[in-house]
User: Fold these one by one.
Assistant:
Number 1:
Amino acid sequence: MEIKVNSCKNCIFRDSDFDPDCVGEDTYDTCSLLRHRNEEYFIAAYNSWDEKEALKTILPNCPLLKENIIVSYGN
């Protein structure tokens, strides 16, 4: 299986945290792949009903821009 990523919006490594009680930007997105590498992993903070613009980009330090990532099951 191959997964093509063209922005943070459709990346499998994007983590979204939603706070329904928040006033203003209620969603906070981070990159789990960069977090595990101890690199800057913040993607965007935005209102959940208006995510279109916030996630059109790819982080400049995205590992997918520089290398292929192979994920496999192992024991």
Note: The first strand starts at residue 14 and ends at 18.
Number 2:
Amino acid sequence: MTVEAAAPPSAARKRVERRLRLPASRGGLTWLAVLVIVGAFLAVQLGRQIYVNWEISRQADEVRAQIAAVAAQNDALQRELDYLRSRAFVSQEARRLTDVGAAGEQALIIPPGAEAAVPADAVPRTKAPPPLLEQWLDLFFGR
């Protein structure tokens, strides 16, 4: 039979008292300062890269919007060009320039300066609607 002896209380205390401590010497503080400076530098560089990436994305969105606007304008111009190349436009312009109508068509030619203003009694008179407040009162209270 073996008997185990308990460790003396002083050995247990020594094991508990061991802690990790940074050296307080100048060398230790220098390394800490260097680490802080390098960390700050890396943080600033990361911030710059994030800002540059955001700025490039914003500019790319603006360019995409410009491309879409130019594409829409290009489509409109293409439709106009298709119309100008059509037989309908050529026929219309030929009739306009030669003052000749199609078969069965009656042409009315008004010389420049012969236009007359519409008489005042021929213009329909419309009564201005009452103000919105009166309209609401009429709606709710039937005045």
Note: The mean pLDDT is 82.
